[in-house]
Specification:
alpha/beta; TIM Barrel; 8-stranded mixed β-sheet; 8 strands; globular
């Protein structure tokens, strides 16, 4: 990697600035039941960072003030967070689309049946991590037995109507590469996933999204220990696509951490690059005008390589 990300932007006469704030992404904590190798946040069972109900109330007030079109709830594993039902119920009337990200496995437990019923009632979009239709590849990335549990949960969701043809209950899958390489073409991957899952396991879903792994957190540690970091960063930087910059998700997204502080994206949370270069709590901001520079680092290469994060 011969240039930093900022140098690459300057070389291409590009500016990375905010166009507005249409998507509110809320990271409710680092606690998770899995320890996936590609996790950029080092989320896992031992983490204690969890959003409390008071901060949820502040998030709801923030969403009401700024009238976002979409709210995207992520983690960690959001299902593990106490009062997650409260956050979903209160955010739903404030946005056109409400997304809950899940690793699927936890939802198999009977204790979370009420959460599934609530998601169905509120027509929450479920976005689930599902790296591969190959069981060995998935388990290598996410843990032994995760693939079988995920397929079982997808069957249950289909039975509820999620992901079925002509259903208004959307079930999206997210596939990240299982190693230090770039994701495959999204359109071709979606076609293959739909064919394989339907033919072999009778599973249906709405859309597939393929993203490069972000070289942060547990994935960066794996890259370093396996001797792949320099090679992977070179792949990302050499794959820089100037056309992706205009449509990057950070240009219309604002990210809130579990303790209520603002960031340009969830990845910047991982390296503590705060919104507008200074740590601002969501209760202390009155406007998010267009034109504000977006904080960026070399991890941003992952969002601009190939088709990018758009």
């Amino acid at each position: 990697m011969d240039k930093t990300f900022q140098e690459k932007l300057l070389e291409n006469k590009l500016l990375l600035h905010r166009d507005g704030a249409e998507i509110l992404q809320v990271n409710v904590g680092r606690l998770c039941n899995l320890t996936c190798r590609h996790c950029h946040l080092n989320a896992g069972p031992g983490r204690t960072e969890v959003m409390d109900k008071d901060t949820m109330t502040e998030v709801i007030a923030f969403a009401n003030r700024f009238q976002f079109k979409t709210a995207d709830i992520t983690g960690g594993s959001p299902e593990l967070v106490p009062d997650i039902d409260y956050l979903l119920l209160e955010l739903r009337p404030l946005v056109n689309d409400l997304i809950l990200r899940t690793n699927l496995v936890l939802l198999l437990q009977e204790d979370y049946r009420h959460l599934l019923d609530l998601c169905k009632e509120l027509k929450v979009v479920l976005t689930a991590s599902f790296p591969s239709t190959n069981a060995n590849q998935t388990d290598a990335q996410r843990g032994k037995g995760v693939w079988l549990d995920s397929v079982e949960m997808l069957h249950r969701l289909n039975a509820m109507g999620y992901g079925m043809p002509d259903s208004d209950l959307k079930l999206n899958l997210v596939s990240n590469p299982t190693g230090a390489f770039m994701p495959v073409d999204q359109c071709r991957a979606e076609k293959k996933f739909k064919q394989d899952l339907a033919r072999k396991w009778g599973v249906h879903f709405t859309n597939l999204f393929t993203f490069a792994n972000i070289p942060l957190g547990r994935f960066r540690s794996w890259l370093e220990s396996s001797g792949n970091l320099a090679q992977y960063m070179e792949k990302l930087s050499s794959g820089f696509n100037p056309a992706t910059v205009k449509g990057l998700m950070c240009r219309t997204l604002i990210s809130v951490s579990w303790d209520g502080y603002l960031y340009d994206c969830d990845f910047n949370q991982a390296v503590d690059l705060p919104f507008s270069g200074q740590k601002i709590h969501l209760t202390k901001i009155s406007k998010i005008p267009p034109g504000i520079p977006i904080e960026a680092g070399d991890h941003c290469y992952a969002c601009t390589a190939g088709a990018g994060f758009t």
